[in-house]
């Protein structure tokens, strides 16, 4: 966990990509889940942030 | 003309393209060749995308051209608080998950069987691949006949196998069964595609690896899990990516089969989007809907391609 946080602080690609992946997955789950309307409402913004983050951080150094 | 062969070859060799087109560097010539493709890409892909994003912030209606106004995020707000859209997302999730699950399972099993050398191997491959070659509209149409409760072959097969009376259930008329009816048809049609990709993966594994495993006394079960599966995994993942993207925008087959019904139980997002755009003529709203779907597919595809590359690197 601390390695992950350290990676985030040092702008390492791996850690940021992991965060972006979690956000995209969470956003897609929120979009398609049948349980909670509020999660559906905020799903797009979560996916969008994750996707933009993924594009940006894929240019970070390894 | 000189008699020296080297000079004769030098004279016969055509000058480079760059030196013939005087004043143009190789880089410029490269751009001249690539330019038309880039222009075409911008015109056909990038411009419509940017225009769609622009329209998604307006209340533009394609059948009323003059009174479009910027309403910014209202379309997005309406879509993401609409229970109908939420239901169509759930229908799409059900369709996506189960079709991919069954297609990968059956497709891989078929590929594994076809990969074994037996008589009539090629003939069976051709027969299995046949559904994939048909038009989705044709497939949708003839499966509506197969699903007929009175005369449909599917219902009689179910009666034969389970004892449930054929006329007592309707696959495309029942709220509980209709989502499964589209899963069955898509699986029937596209499992051969997954099978072909898996078959390519299985045939790329050299026999020498299995021979080495045999020498190490590895059981068939262990060979399957430690050799076959890891080596076919990139191919399987590729098949899942293709089918996932394709099924996310599934339209023709489902429209022909159920028309999105009964009620809206099989209204997938693409059907919902088409209704908004071309039946209700809410172009701005439909554009926002399309942007949401695009971001979702793009995000998923990005992480999937990343995972695929990692698997390939192993």
3D architecture notes:
The complex is a heterodimer of chains A (62) and B (314). Chain A is built from 3 helices and no strands. Chain A is mainly alpha-helical and 62 residues long. Chain A has one domain. In chain A, helix 1 crosses helix 2 and helix 2 packs antiparallel against helix 3. The radius of gyration of chain A is 13 Å and the shape is elongated. By secondary structure, chain B is mainly alpha-helical. Chain B has 2 domains: 47 residues, no CATH class; 240 residues, MetI-like fold (Orthogonal Bundle), CATH 1.10.3720.10. Chain B has 14 helices and no strands. In chain B, helix 6 packs across helix 9. Chain B is flat and about 95 Å long. Chain B starts with a helix and ends with a helix. The chains are: A mainly alpha (62), B mainly alpha (314). The interface between A and B is medium-sized, with 23 and 18 residues.
């Amino acid at each position: 966990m601390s390695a992950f946080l350290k990676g985030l602080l040092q702008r390492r690609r791996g850690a940021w990509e992991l965060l972006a992946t979690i956000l995209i997955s969470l956003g897609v789950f929120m979009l398609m889940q049948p349980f909670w309307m509020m999660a559906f409402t905020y799903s797009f913004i979560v996916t969008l942030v994750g996707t933009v983050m993924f594009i940006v951080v894929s240019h970070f150094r390894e | 003309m000189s008699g020296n062969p080297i000079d004769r070859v030098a004279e016969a060799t055509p000058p480079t393209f760059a030196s013939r087109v005087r004043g143009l560097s190789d880089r410029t010539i490269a751009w001249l060749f690539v330019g038309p493709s880039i222009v075409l890409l911008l015109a056909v892909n990038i411009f419509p995308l940017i225009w769609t994003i622009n329209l998604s912030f307006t209340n533009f209606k394609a059948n009323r051209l003059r009174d479009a106004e910027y309403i910014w995020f209202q379309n997005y707000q309406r879509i993401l608080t609409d229970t109908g859209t939420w239901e169509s997302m759930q229908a799409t999730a059900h369709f996506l998950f189960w079709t991919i699950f069954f297609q990968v399972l059956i497709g891989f099993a078929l590929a594994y069987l076809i990969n074994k050398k037996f008589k009539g191997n090629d003939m069976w491959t051709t027969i299995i691949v046949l559904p994939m070659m048909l038009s989705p509209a044709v497939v949708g149409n003839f499966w509506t006949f197969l699903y007929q409760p009175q005369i449909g072959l599917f219902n009689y097969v179910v009666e034969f196998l389970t004892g449930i009376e054929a006329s007592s259930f309707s696959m495309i008329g029942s709220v509980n069964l209709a989502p499964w009816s589209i899963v069955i048809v898509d699986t029937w049609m596209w499992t051969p595609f997954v099978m072909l990709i898996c078959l390519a993966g299985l045939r790329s594994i050299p026999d020498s690896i299995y021979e080495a495993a045999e020498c190490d006394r590895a059981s068939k079960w262990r060979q399957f899990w430690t050799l076959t599966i890891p080596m076919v995994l990139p191919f399987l993942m590729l098949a899942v990516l293709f089918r996932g993207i394709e099924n996310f925008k599934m339209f023709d087959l489902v429209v022909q089969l159920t028309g999105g019904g009964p009620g809206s139980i099989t209204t997938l997002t693409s059907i919902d989007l088409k209704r908004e755009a071309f039946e209700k003529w809410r172009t701005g709203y439909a554009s926002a809907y399309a942007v949401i779907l695009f971001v979702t597919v793009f995000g998923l595809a990005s992480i999937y391609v990343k995972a695929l590359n990692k698997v390939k690197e192993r």
